[in-house]
Specification:
alpha+beta; 7 helices; globular
Length: 208
Amino acid sequence: MAGPASGACRVRLTTALAILAFALCLFPSQSLAGDATDQIRGAIDRTIGILRDPALTAKGKKEERRGLLRKEIEPVFNFEEMAKRSLGPNWRDRTPEERKQFVALFRELLENSYLGKIESYQGEVIRYGKETVDGPYAQVKTLVVTTKGQEFPMDYRMLADGGRYRIYDVVIEGISLVGNYRSQFNSILQKSSFREMMDKLRATIKKQ
């Protein structure tokens, strides 16, 4: 995105790291597992199954593999809620059609950011921590350990939706992914129209 392009780049890298932490886990430690934790763990196991399937690692199978990854991960994330919170107060001023278009672009931005990272698995490990529930909201704390021994705390904020929990924000080392995007979008909309911001989003996605 023009203007704060460097900031947008940092956000995309942060997003990729967050989803990498979510998707790449082979040896979870003992945890205080609840419904939200179990749902994340199940998605991780199925995602790893796709990544390790030899039939999907052959040449020419990249798009098929990515399609399966999208299909597997999509139910875990509430992209509409993430988009709404990322747009913040500006969401109220948008028409139903504008909201629909924004959610679609926002989702594509996130997907493009994390798919490459998921496919570059290097043995990262997630250690599950405490799960807390407050009404329809849940939070699952995790710690990502890289192959070099670096540790990154990642907290998944989830919202009950249709009998299950879905992720609406990821907090990485104390920094909210949604809050980071909201700061970016607010900065753009202070200087540009919503249509111009959408054009910048499309340009960013094309570059991805």
